[in-house]
Amino acid sequence: MITVTDLRKVYQQGKKEVVALDGVTLSVPKGSIHGIIGHSGAGKSTLVRCLTLLDRPTSGSVSIDGTELSSVRDSEIRAARRRIGMVFQHANLMDSRTAAGNVAHPLELVKTPKDRIRTRVAELLKLVGLEGFENAYPSQLSGGQRQRVGIARALASDPDVLLCDEPTSALDPATTDEILDLIQDLTQRLQLTVLIITHEMNVVKRVCDSVSLLSRGRIVEHGALRDVAGDLDSQLARALLPLPASEPLPGALERGPVLEILFSGDSAKEPVLTGVARRFDIDINVLAGSVETLDGQQFGHLRVQLAENADLDAVLAYLRERGISAKRAAPAAPAPDFADAAPPTSVPSTGEQGGNE
Ligand SMILES: Nc1ncnc2c1ncn2[C@@H]1O[C@H](COP(=O)(O)OP(=O)(O)O)[C@@H](O)[C@H]1O
Ligand SMILES: [Mg+2]
User: Fold this and answer.
1) What is the CATH number of domain 2-228?
2) Strand 284-294's sheet: what is its strand order?
């Protein structure tokens, strides 16, 4: 369990103060995966640095299973940091070391006996599906395999928390899915508490149990995936169930009101539009639609255009009575996109940076 309470980080830029984190509070239960999504400059990297104690928060607290990290003395920082495994966008492996040598590195740093290191490294490589790759060098591995080595290294110190900073942003879609499945599997098997920093909504969709939207240092939306996805006013819902921009279809309905409708759970099983068309005796055109299963529940997001003579207020009331979120919309409102939050991809994939030191 990781708990962040009222975390604040202020940087001094010359005479100016920059508030990078402003009262961030979140809590992630053991065995679950929390996604943090946000635009560039939102404070994601600052949050990572505060969680890994690379940066001291200005105020507020971070605790892991009840142990307060922010009050740890400098001499104990290394030990505290070992409770957090870090997975980076580029695996940051040491080129001069084999897969086994990379995974061994954090264990060598704390002077683990040699034979213990050997068995532990074999265990870890097996855990991430890399049995038989002990002696391969990073240059001989695919991007996905390198990330697996990075994950094995992050797990070497038996951490409670896995902190993944854009773990799949440098991978192709198929490899992304593989790595996310691995992270999900490890979360359950090892009962880890996992935070994934990402700008990709697909990552959130595939593995996160809950999600926070970070904006200008503040968490502006958060919740279980199935809760945020059911609310039309939520930016996260709009990004989870994106609708393409659309133009009114030329023809009979061209000047009618446009509605956005979001239904979930039981209401997703009802023939809602047919109900509206029958009840009000009007025609309806679907302009755009998105249907997803999130967290085991079905969600649908539609943009529809009603006949010009439709009684909009009555239709909205009819839908809301049935537990369906609906509101008048612009025909072409685009879905929010967090892609500009992507960190630069030109960072070299290597470097002697090691892992959990
Ligand atoms: N070391 C620093 N000194 C001064 N300002 C910083 C420092 N690190 C980050 N900032 C500022 O804090 C804000 C959040 O940055 P960052 O955490 O890097 O955002 P993100 O990772 O979401 O893009 C930005 O306005 C950034 O300019
Ligand atoms: Mg960043």
Assistant:
1) 3.40.50.300
2) 284-294, 297-306, 258-264, 325-328
Nearest 10 degrees: CA dihedral of 346, 42, 74, 111?
-40
pLDDT of residue 253: 64
CATH architecture for residues 249-328:
2-Layer Sandwich (3.30)
**Could you tell me if the CB of 288 is within 6 A of ligand 1?**
no
The DSSP result for 88-151, as a single string, is -SS--B-TTS-HHHHHHHHHHHTT--HHHHHHHHHHHHHHTT-TT-TT--GGGS-HHHHHHHHH
**For residue range 69-92, what is the model confidence (pLDDT) as tens digits?**
877 887 788 888 888 999 999 999
What's the one-letter identity of residue 184? Q
Q: In a mutational test of the pocket of ligand 1, which residue from 39, 46, 340 has the highest number of ligand atoms less than 8 Å from its CB? A: 46
DSSP three-state, residue 42: coil
